[in-house]
Please model this.
Amino acid sequence: MKQLFIFDLDGTLYDESNPISKIIDERIKNYIKQERNLTENEYKNLEKNIPDLLTALSKLKIDKNKFYEEVYKNINYNEYFDRNEKLKNELSKLNGKKIICSNSCEYHVNEILKNLGIAKLFDNIYCTDKHKNKLEIYKKIVEKYKLSPEQIYVIGDNYMVDIEPAYSLGFKTLYIKNGSEISNIEDALKKINYEKEKN
Model:
């Protein structure tokens, strides 16, 4: 049976402990606070009540493309990422198309994949700088590749953004969460390969 694997990027294909995560979070906070003249407490309340970044940008009427341009510019990605041969080998074992689906912009995705040495392994990249949200992207992927939901895996670290919309469409899902059975990308890939061997 044909299979298709959809991977989130940030916190999924690399660990959220990477310093770039903190840098980007800080840039996001500073940009939103400046654009809407928010205090630190107002921003914390925003994070608490609207944990989904895209929803927050929409609610605050912040231009998404300008936001992405400002947050991700002038980052020296090779300071934070090295080639990951182990990850490359494990991804190469997957028998099916591999797609990136990210809430970041395409420039950010391409830079990270390039520095990890895994860019050539992916058949397509979908980012929310060009799409409304991940649910819209998942539906487009089904339409494009003509696969049934049970042929599609989604691997991500944000339950609400990555997993919930995938689950609603009947996709197979792997939720990466610290302290759980699947706490990193290596665990997720091992589980996929185990299920493949079992069947």
The radius of gyration is 17 Å. The chain has a mean pLDDT of 94.
